[in-house]
Amino acid sequence: MPAVRERPAPRVHRPPTTPPGRRPGRSPHDLWPYALIAPAIGGMLYLLVYPLVRAVVISLQDFRLRQLISGDAEFVGLRNYRTLLSDPRFWEVTGRTFVFMAVNVVLIMVVSTLVALMTERLRRVGRTVVLCALVLAWAMPVVAATTVFQWLFHSEFGIVNQSLTALGFGSFDRYPWFANGTASFTILVLLIVWQSVPFAAVTLYSALTTVPAELYESARLDGASASRIFRSLTFPMLRPIFMLVLSLEVIWTFKAFVQIWVMTRGGPGDATTILPVYAVQTALSSQRYDLGSAASMITVVLMSGVLVLYFRQMFRQEDDLR
Amino acid sequence: MTLPSRRVRRIPLNAAAVVTVVVCLFPVYWMVSTAFKPSRDIQSAEPRLVPYTWTLDHFRRAVQADGFELFWRNSILVTLGAVLLSLVVALGASFAVARLRWRGRRQFMLLVFVAQMAPWESPIIPVYIISRDTDMLDRLPTLTLVYFMITLPFTIVVLRGFLATIPPELEEAAQVDGCTRTGAFVKVALPLLAPGLMATSLFGFITAWNEFAYANFLIIKQQDNRTLPVWLSSFQNTFGTDWGATMAASTLFALPALVIFLLLQRHVTSGFAAGAVKG
């Protein structure tokens, strides 16, 4: 069962060799289909392709507040990219982005695999309860969840500090989580893992349910241990879906922009600034639209590697684009 | 294997299940319970897991906050506009993909998939500059257009999937009986498509309802045109340390999404929303 697309889209009752002209509107030169997709194409061109092209152009220009108002920007070649790449702060941010991504993705994949395996072994009632809880956590809007986490980790009245103090960790009494770089980073990771695990776990779980039970039985009869069954049977069967979820989570790390912006704005200092945050800070807060665009172009290039992996996996999974 | 030993063996498993449920639900529960607690219980050194006394004060303060109704209305307008627009456009496109044969169909679907996966936070700088150049900054229609684009690819993919499960022979039969092609589609396929349309638009609704980045950066000067997520993110600035009211506002904002997800749980757990809706 494909996880990343909702329905297997079986091409029912569609013989590939329909005689031309049997159905109206079937000839390849008919203009009907093009009229039908025109609005979608137009929307994508204006709101996706055009902004991307514009970003490339701006990243090659000298584009600051003055140019934004007067509108006559000069081309400066690759100067912005050179400025960025020779800026140690940019490299710090890039390094942090990869650390952030790696920590999040590893935690998400490990935890959600465990939750999926656990859910499959539960009885019916327990399974329903766990799935309901996962769905509720998944449904929580990003901004609401971020606000709630700020409240959970509030220095004075936050439940986390009060519980930790009650458990005997006196040093957490009024501990200001958001004043410390590492602590803020940790909270953001916790928040993103909490929000991402439900999707990954539910997807992996629905993939697990497609593994035939007979396979497990025969493996158990052959005397395979639990970890051996996972390595040699479950994981190979899960692999395609696992890779899809993995690449999605990598791409979605860049959506953490919202949580970071609402919670810390990249601070304290630079402790939670990752590339998308850096790009927006540079462009919209310091009015260096050229440098910001260059930074987001670099982000897009870094990400497209993962995107290519994702699409290769997806097309191998189901040749659905005939 | 006797029954008691099996029960003992299941203890770690059930304990893990309990931990999972608690971890998933606690932040949601804490948000709701804080919203109902009186302020003196919120700001006390001894936290209470279950509120002793319940109060609606925080909700009252959140609802009476400046512009609450206005932002609620803005959110609804933008979201509904985007969802309806993308539903209409996607219906045409998915019909073309699922029912008609034409050159470029494969390329079109590839474009849709790429758009679905596109990192939507990246083009925010050029979109800001383009809307500034075209005098669209600070206006709700801009947001509607952006959300339309964010929900469109997903809607096309899902509707195409639903359409593929409806046998084209049904429409052909109606055409034999004298319907036009459009008439056959509207009278035969559309009613069968209704559940799909419903589910898709609800997921589109959630995506647009939750969107923060564009709403935050495209609506700057005209504060009356802000939407709920932006309002909520600046709530602490307005209300300072009033965490009760903040949590009440979060609850009110999260409620539609929570209800919709629970209603659509069947679709959600079968991987329906994957790829588009992520919280």
TrEMBL record, chain A:
Secretion signal, residue range per the UniProt entry: none
SUPFAM superfamilies listed in its UniProt record: MetI-like (SSF161098)
Keyword GTP-binding set for record: no
Alphabetical list of Gene3D superfamilies matching this protein: MetI-like
Protein topology in the membrane: Multi-pass membrane protein
Keywords: Cell membrane, Membrane, Transmembrane, Transmembrane helix, Transport
Disordered: annotated segments: 1-26
Protein name per UniProt: Carbohydrate ABC transporter permease
TrEMBL record, chain B:
Sequence ranges assigned to domain ABC transmembrane type-1 in this UniProt record: 72-264
Localization (cell): Cell membrane
Residues spanning the membrane: 12-32, 76-98, 110-130, 142-163, 184-209, 243-264
InterPro entries, sorted: BP-dep_ABC_trans_perm, MetI-like, MetI-like_sf
Main location: membrane
Family that this chain belongs to: Belongs to the binding-protein-dependent transport system permease family.
Name of this protein: Carbohydrate ABC transporter permease
Organism: Streptomyces atroolivaceus
